[in-house]
Amino acid sequence: MNGRIADSVARWLLRAVTYSIVAAIAYILFDVVRNGLPAINLHFLVGRPEKGGSEGGILPAIVGTFYLVVGTGVVALPLGMASAIYLSEYARQGRFTRAIRLAIITLAGVPSIVFGLFGLGLFVLFLHFGTSVLAGSLTLACMVLPTIIVASEEALRAVPQYLREGSLALGAGKWQTIYKNVLPYAIPGMVTGSILGVGRAAGETAPILLTCAAFYLPKLPKSVFDQCMALPYHLYVLATQFPDADKVRPLQYGTALVLLALVLGVNLGAIILRIHFRRKYRW
């Protein structure tokens, strides 16, 4: 009887905690949408900022964020997936490999400002990339790389071992086995985790604050060595740098809504790809 009571209490307690978190997130989303929708119009989305960013549109910030997300994905996705394949399929499992995995997990929990300082020292100053889209993309790639490696390696481990053993028994080589029998079934998890990691980069402020983001830059970047505006940093500027908070509050909510839509779009793309690959490859 006591066991049943404890089980019932634990279930209702966990349910209450879950519902509280969902309610808090729902309220935040409702508040952003309710206050942000009135600011959304064509001029706001395709116009240039004016008067130091206190008026006008956010097109340079949208374009800059898009460049950073694409640049991060181009660098981080192949490196992260390749590293996961090596650690899971090729590396000899021993102390050294365990130390590497521990280091990767530790890096995944490092605050983003630390990666920003790292990017400032390596890419901006040492490699002389300057404050640029390239430096910002490389910094964000370093930040999301541990997440991509961990997610990809877990997806590879989830593939049944008999698929590897059967392929090797029939005379296939190591890479042929991985390419034909492992990756097709691991791709859903690898792609989902990787895209979610890249989507995280779209909302980061600290790394781009030190490596690429401009306070006010109405023109669009023409090359990867130019500075750019970005939605998270523009939102930070609107929230902290203008004394007349009421005047720019509609722009704050509008920018937050656009950033939220961008991140949700990236996550939705990951879900769609996961569903597609799961339907295509089943074991």
What is the percent of helical residues? Answer: over 70%
% residues in beta strands? under 5%
> What is the alpha-carbon Rg in Å?
22 Å
Shape verdict: globular
Give the overall pLDDT as a whole number. Answer: 88
Q: Give the uncertain stretches in residue-range form.
A: none
Order of secondary-structure elements: HHEEHHHHHHHHH
Describe this structure in words.
The protein is mainly alpha-helical. The protein is built from eleven helices and two strands; from the N terminus they run H-H-E-E-H-H-H-H-H-H-H-H-H. A hairpin with a 4-residue loop joins strand 1 (49-50) and strand 2 (55-56). The two termini are 42 Å apart.
Please render the helix and strand layout as text.
Layout: H1 2-36, H2 42-46, E1 49-50, E2 55-56, H3 59-90, H4 95-108, H5 112-126, H6 133-157, H7 161-169, H8 174-202, H9 206-211, H10 231-240, H11 245-280
Antiparallel strand pairs: 1-2
Helix pairs in contact: 1-11, 3-6, 3-8, 4-6, 5-6, 6-8, 7-8, 8-11, 10-11
